[in-house]
Amino acid sequence: MKNGISEKLKIGGISIGSWLNLGSPLAAEVMASVGFDWLAVDGEHSPVDMGQIAGMFRAIEARGATPIVRIWDHHPETIGRVLDAGAFGIVAPHVS
User: Fold this and answer.
1) DSSP letter string over 6-64?
2) Is the sign of the CA dihedral 76, 82, 86, 87 positive or negative?
3) Which 3 state secondary structure label does DSSP give 95?
4) Can 74 be counted among the known catalytic residues?
5) CB-based contacts of 66, cutoff 8 Å, min separation 6
6) Which residues lie across from 38 on neighbouring strands?
7) How far apart are CA 32 and CA 64, in angstroms?
8) Based on CB atoms within 10 Å of each CB, which residue in 28, 58, 64, 83 is the most buried?
9) How many CB atoms lie within 10 A of CB 94?
C-alpha cells in the first residue's frame, strides 16, 4: 500500500486534502475524483458508522486519494478498527 501523503512530503512537496462530513461513499468518490491527495472522514462530528466509514475509504482509495479519519474517542479498539477498515492515518480529537 502506498501512502501518497508520505511520498509527497518526503520529497519536499505539499499534500492537499479536504474533509468529508457526509456519510456518503458517493460524496467521497466525487471529492476524491477532484484530485485531492487525501480526504479525512469526520467520524467525530458526522453521523457515520463503521460500515459507512469503510465504504468511504474504499471509494477514496479507488480514485487514488489517501483516506484518513478523525476518530471519535481515544480508545485503542477504535484506532484498531478504523485502521483495519482502511485508514492510512488518524486525527485524534481533544489532544492537549
Assistant:
1) HHHHHTT----EEEE-S--HHHHHHHHHTT-SEEEEESSSS---HHHHHHHHHHHHHTT
2) negative
3) coil
4) no
5) 3, 4, 5, 17, 37, 38, 39, 60, 88, 89
6) 17, 66
7) 7
8) 28
9) 7
The amino acid occupying position 3 is N
Which residue out of 45, 74, 75, 94 is catalytically annotated? 45
- Which grid cell is 66? 489517501
Q: pTM of the predicted model, to two decimals?
A: 0.89
pLDDT, tens only, 5-47: 888 899 999 999 999 999 899 999 999 999 999 999 999 998 8
